[in-house]
Amino acid sequence: MNDTATFAAMIGDRIALARSEAELSQAELAAKLGFNDRQTVSAMESGLRAVSAEELVRLGEILGRPLEFFTDPHQLVEKGEFSYRTAEAEETLAAFEATARRLLAANHRFRSLLDEPSPPMASQLREITKQSTPAAAAAQGDQLARIWALGDCPAEKLGAMIETQLHVLVLAVDAPHGISGATCRLRSGDVILLNRTEPNYRRNWTLAHELFHLLTWDEMPPERIDPEIAAAEGGKPKVEKLADAFAAGLLMPVALVRAAWAGTTGEVHRRILQCADKFQVSGQAAYYRLKILDFLSAEELAKVDLSKLTRPKSAGGRTPPLYSAEFVRRLHAVLQRGLATVRYTAEALDIDIEDLKELFAEHGLDVPFDL
Which of 131, 142, 242, 323 could tie 249 with a disulfide, CB 3.0–4.6 Å? Predict the structure, then answer.
């Protein structure tokens, strides 16, 4: 698809979206534009008919949209549902979401330039409902770890398997302190965003937790803000308890925990932290998993002090590269094939050209352009 056709298709998609959200039929929009029938609008929306500048201005007036809504490829204009794992204020989330939308729009644009189809929506866990118990959710996580053959430390392979098995984009991003991650459902593909500045045990838990929300979105759509800390009254919502249980089962399958626990030595806090290191989760996450599985004796439970299971952020491993291997591969291909300019690409990601070079180096790729 050439640039002109791609641009026409983008404008057509956005006209269709704006018309739908304005609750107008093609015939009604055609009448407002002064066309004789709906076929002209249909041709515009399918990208088969060019839209003049005057028509775009008129469309903006009718549909209540600025001109940039139709013409700026850097804008993510489709309706996307975000769910955040955070305790941050709405103003912080709004600023981060604007950045995230720009990034996701760039990914959508790069896929279009490479003529890659939009991925299907993620599969759903049909066995889990609002009436399910945490034990059932944990069992589903455990089963998925075995089906995907995630190995002795499921956290290490989880992100790659989510991308390959579910076609969900997993991106490591620089997010404000306090935002652990976010999940977004889009027609152009589901996305999980992880704050790469957090230690690996928090990123791993957030990834598994957000995966649950994607896999149960139809049955249990998550709230916009997914509380990490239980409310003062009533504790966490049921859906969040199920998500935590699923994450525990997925990252710490029963058989692996049993073997790992048998191999630990020393006093109870040391043994729990050894188990946590084995699965790259927090000390408290390992403790609760061991407790629920009855692997801790009554004497050991009586000795546990949760404050002794915390670790400094520096114990959380290295900071992962920005974005993901799949995203950067796509970006590299766009530039290598000359499908977009370097300046356009840098602007789409809101970085400068030197940062763009560093991004490729960080992912072990050559710089596909000369300046």
Answer: 142
